[in-house]
Each structure stands twice: as structure tokens, then as C-alpha cells.
Amino acid sequence: MKFSELPTPCFVIDKAKxxxxxxxxxxxxxxxxxxxxxxxxxxxxxxxxxxxxxxLDGVTASGLFEARLGSEEFRGENHVFxxxxxxxxxDEIASLCGHVVFNSLGQLRRFKGRALRAGAKVGIRVNPEFxxxxxxxxxxxxxxxxxxxxxxxxxxxxDFDGVSGIHFHTLCxxxxxxxxxxxxxxxxxxxxxxxxISWINFGGGHHITRPGYDIDRxxxxxxxxxxxxxxxxxxxxxxxxxxxxxxLKSKVLDIVKNGIEIAILDASAACHMPDVIExxxxxxxxxxxxxxxxxxxYRLAGATCLAGDVIGDYSFDEKLxxxxxxxxxxxxxxxxxxxxxxxxxxxxxIAVMEEDGDCTIxxxxxxxxxxSRLS
Length: 375
Prior knowledge:
Structural class: alpha/beta
Strand content: 15-25%
Radius of gyration: 22 Å
Order of helices and strands: EHEHEHEHEHEEHEHEHEHEEHHEEEEEH
CATH topology of the largest domain: TIM Barrel
Distance between the termini: 37 Å
Mean pLDDT: 97
Number of domains: 2
Low-confidence stretches: none
Largest sheet: 8 strands, mixed
Shape: globular
Helix content: 25-40%
CATH class of the largest domain: Alpha Beta
Number of helices: 12
């Protein structure tokens, strides 16, 4: 079917744009001589994993379920990092993942032996205590009192016997200048341990496929570590893989007025794109402008009872009418993985759009999906 024939609400994965992103990432792999993994926490649409596996080396997981998904659906390496592993899940996780990264020395002592017996490579996440974030502390792993990563002052107590890697992740939608600055801090604080390991993971948050991203600087950062310390380097972007590679198609259900015209949609910020509220940010809408930029301005909002279920303020060339379609862009990342059924809101269908524009629905949801999550 064509895009116009898809139901609403519906997520649509754009394979042409996804492939374009993957080609950029593959070129980075080849130029830098590193390995690149898909961070499933941002994008877990396993229907396109066969495509992604043609370009990337593997996936990363944040726990048992993502580890299972990566093992079952992706042809490549399977890595895992979790802030704290559960005892009754760990052996299965270690059996599924070739690399297991620990967040604390306590977890390392508790589970290292079991990971090594399962044949996994063991790593430690470190906290460089070097923040490059200018936004909300919620996205800053180096913020004061952060629970993520071992501090330099504490790492001297680590038993590196059996430990082969170091992991750090401090970026969020950032350019490679922030990576370079962070990497310098990591080398300064933790470089003395590099002779004990064979691999290092630079984490995610690298906006590699964003226009204007300095790829040359990223490649140089990777090459520097490989050449100076003879380490295998991993990157694990999530957003960069599927950046701008998806849409959320919605429909106007009603229009109300209270100081501004408000279009109530069958898509919800709270249920279908929670990052709009959490980050917060204003998602792009096709054929729209900023408030007042075009003749007719509207606030777009969801149909839940949450007063703050507001997506943002936009303007259009023509007046909106009930049943008009509103299409949000950049909806492949941190959307499908975060959906919920608050208020009994239906989950959007999921479709894939081929490069010729033909669309196929790969998943529909129903009342059964809502009820099955409850008791």
C-alpha cells in the first residue's frame, strides 16, 4: 500500500533513509578500523535487523530481553551493559552475550567468574567525571552523584584478572569535538590501565549521521587509540543508526480553542513519543512551520487525560480540519521502544516503507496487547 493508505496512528520506518545512515556508519567503520554496534535501547525494530546487519558489527543490550532479541534476530556480536544484573538472569545473559560490561566493582566481583565461564569477554564501565552536557542532568552520566561507571579513584581496587575491556558513555546527540575532549580525559585518568586490556568501547551519543557532524575528527580519535594503545575500538550509536528514518502518521480528532486553536490527535506525546515530554523537544511535522510562521497556528496535543500531553505549537498553510493527517518526522528512535498504553491508548501500528515508496504493515496492535500487560 501507499503511505496515504496507512492507518493512524502508525509508525513508518523509511528504509531508504535507514540505508543512507547505515552507509555512512559503514564508511566510518572502514576508515577508522573500528566496530560499530546498534544500541537497541534507541531502535529495536528487528524486522529490519537483516538490513542493519549488512552494515554493522552487532548490537548492544541493556538487560536480558534486549540480549535475547539481539541473539535471536541479529547476525553479529551481542554486547550487554546493565547498571545492575539480577542473579537469576545473569547466567542466561552471559550465555547470550560475547561481551559483558559491569557498572560497579561489586557487580564485577560478584559475576565476573560466571561471565568468564560462559565464554564472555568482561569489561568495566568507567566514569570520566568530565561532563560535556549543556542540557538536562538527566542525560549526563558524569553529573554529580551519578550512579553510572567506576570513578578513577576507585578503579585501583579492581581485580583486572580476566577483565579485557573498558567502556565509557557520556555523550547525547553530540559532535566529535565532545568525544575528543572526553577521550582525552579518559586517557589521562584511565590510560594506565590500557596495557591490561584489549578493547575499549566509546559508548553512544555520537550523532554521526547528522548533517555537519565532523566525521574526520571521529576517525582520528579512533585511530589515535588504536595506534597508541593497540586496542580494538567499539562505538555503539543508537540515534545515528535510525536518525530521521521514520515517521509517525496521525489524524486530527477534534479542534478546540482556548487562547489558541488546539488540534487533538490520535497520537499522544505521553503514550507514543514520551521523549517530547522527557527531554523535552519539539518533533518536526511535515509541511509545517513555527508558531506564527505560516497563516494558521495550532497546538498539537494528544487525546489522553494528562493536561501536559502536548506535542508542540506549529503553523500551517491551510486551516486544519477533523480527519486531516499530521505526519511527525524523526520518529524511528526512542519512540517505538518507549510506547505505553496509558489511558488505554492504542499502540500505533508499525509499517516499513521501501525505497520505491511501497509500504507494508508489519505489526498491528489490539485490545489484547493492552490487556495482556495488566492483571
